[in-house]
Specification:
Layout (H helix, E strand, L loop, with lengths): L2 H16 L3 H7 L4 E10 L5 E12 L5 E8 L4 H18 L5 E7 L7 H15 L8 E5 L5 H15 L23 H17 L7 E5 L3 H12 L3 E7 L2 E4 L6 H11 L9 E3 L1 H5 L5 E4 L8 H4 L6 E3 L8 H9 L3 E3 L1 H4 L1 H16 L5 H26 L3 H17 L2
Parallel strand pairs: 3-4, 3-5, 6-7, 6-10, 10-11, 11-12
Antiparallel strand pairs: 1-2, 2-4, 7-8, 8-9
This protein binds nicotinamide-adenine-dinucleotide.
Length: 407
């Protein structure tokens, strides 16, 4: 099942539980605008290659479109549409004044030199320049897109409009208008959300272990935070496979090794496991932090965690959701769990718009109450409607978008 089909099934479930207005439902089944571009990139060997990219603008009823850019060989329109729709819900759940959008380029950036990657980013920026802007549509990093790539985008857009325009994109480097804390914000936000659910589920460091799938920007930070707060992280994986140690993995050392070798390497007494085995390990909290559809129906029957904390976007299929719910496993949904990233993007955008620069402390002091309020609103809606945490998050987001659409 495609990510977009899954997203629409999630929308339908929540819409029917809350009796969503028919127009709002129809409006939210379609993007407001889909931009597809073929753009040229100068390669190091002197040749020019065409690449295909997308920017899907789902809904801006609550504010400018907002969402990341993904550079990945499997990125296609279906995936970008799903991610763009989820961004609309996510920004509404976090209650920040943004709508939802997402973009991407079908490319394996690992096969490009740094110059080619810069050429690709700048050419893609020119191709979408007329539909983005600080008060129109504000991109950000996602899978395989870095702060350096965001700097190139801001610089190229500035040339296009003839003046510096830092607020056109978030997730930039600190030297180029980025926010303190943005690099680790998705993990930090997910940890705040986890804390909000922790008591409800009676999970504590003595009795709970953690498994993290995906060891990139988001996965490394959430693993580091769990480790820092005294939890045993017993399994970690990346695209090349994983490791398992029931006595706990030294996460800071693994992060250092990953930086050195480029992948999750075996350390201490850990043994190798496959990505599928990782999802089935004995643990308290399973944290998918890689790509969509990681937990399907077959895997869902074998998940042993009490909580699934969705740091990745769309890691659980609707069938898997139903199975996990029946088995009493709480899924804290992506649109809440990973919303610390976009919320800190909003804080970066605010700093750029007002020409301010806040300390990391100030940033996280603003982030925490937003995450706490969002978590509380979702838990309240789950109780009030007797639905799963995902349906509840959708209900919270949809109510807010519906209100904005009706002006
Ligand atoms: P990233 O590119 O930094 O890391 C992705 C990681 O996933 C890498 O370690 C990669 O090796 C691993 N991976 C890929 N396929 C895998 C597989 N089959 N099994 C196990 N690991 C696999 O990307 P990221 O920014 O950390 O994003 C990860 C997820 O979090 C995505 O779903 C993204 O949309 C979501 N997310 C990220 C942010 C953010 O601020 N970075 C914000 C919100 C949501």
């Amino acid at each position: 099942m495609s990510a977009f089909t899954n997203a629409m099934r999630q929308l339908d479930l929540a819409a029917s539980a809350m009796h969503l207005d028919a127009y709002t439902l129809e409006r939210l089944r379609h993007p407001q605008r889909t931009v597809e571009v073929d753009f040229p990139v100068k390669m190091d060997d002197g040749s020019t290659k065409l690449f295909h990219g997308y920017r899907v603008q789902w809904n801006d009823a609550r504010g400018p479109f907002k969402g990341g850019l993904r550079f990945h060989p499997q990125t296609d329109l279906d995936e970008v549409k799903a991610l763009s729709f989820w961004m609309s819900i996510k920004c509404a759940v976090a209650n920040i004044p943004f709508g939802g959008g997402k973009g991407g380029v079908t490319v394996n950036p690992k096969e490009l030199s740094k110059t080619e990657l810069e050429n690709l980013t700048r050419s893609f920026t020119r191709a979408i320049a007329d539909v983005i802007g600080p008060e129109k549509d504000v991109p950000a990093p996602d899978v395989n897109t870095t702060p350096q790539i965001m700097d190139w985008l801001a610089d190229e857009y500035g040339k296009y409009v003839g003046k510096p325009s830092l607020a056109v994109v978030t997730g930039k480097t600190l030297d180029h208008g980025g926010s303190e804390g943005r690099g680790t914000a998705t993990g930090q936000g997910a940890y705040y959300v986890f804390e909000a659910y922790r008591e409800k589920l009676e999970l504590d460091p003595e009795t709970s272990t953690i498994a993290v799938q995906g060891f990139g920007n988001a996965g490394q930070e959430i693993a580091r935070l769990f480790h820092h707060h005294g939890y045993k992280v017993v399994a970690v994986s990346d695209s090349q496979g994983g490791i398992h140690d029931e006595n706990g993995i030294d996460i800071p050392e693994l992060i250092r090794l990953k930086k050195e070798t480029g992948h999750v390497a075996r350390i201490g007494d850990a043994r190798d496991i496959t990505n599928e085995e990782l999802l089935k390990v004995e643990c308290g909290v399973l944290v998918p932090s890689a790509l969509e559809n990681a937990i399907d129906a077959d895997i869902a029957h074998e998940v042993k965690a009490r909580m699934v904390l969705e740091v990745a976007n769309g890691p659980t299929t609707p069938e898997a959701d139903m199975i996990l719910a029946k088995r009493g496993i709480t899924v804290v949904p992506d649109v809440l769990a990973n919303s610390g990233g976009v919320t800190t993007s909003f804080l970066e955008w605010q700093q750029n718009m007002t020409d301010e620069h806040w300390t990391e402390d100030e940033v996280f002091t603003r982030l925490k109450p937003i995450m706490d309020d969002a978590s509380a609103a979702v838990m309240r809606a789950a109780d009030a409607h007797a639905v799963t945490q995902r349906e509840a998050a959708f209900i919270v987001g949809l109510e807010r978008i519906d209100k904005a659409l009706k002006g």
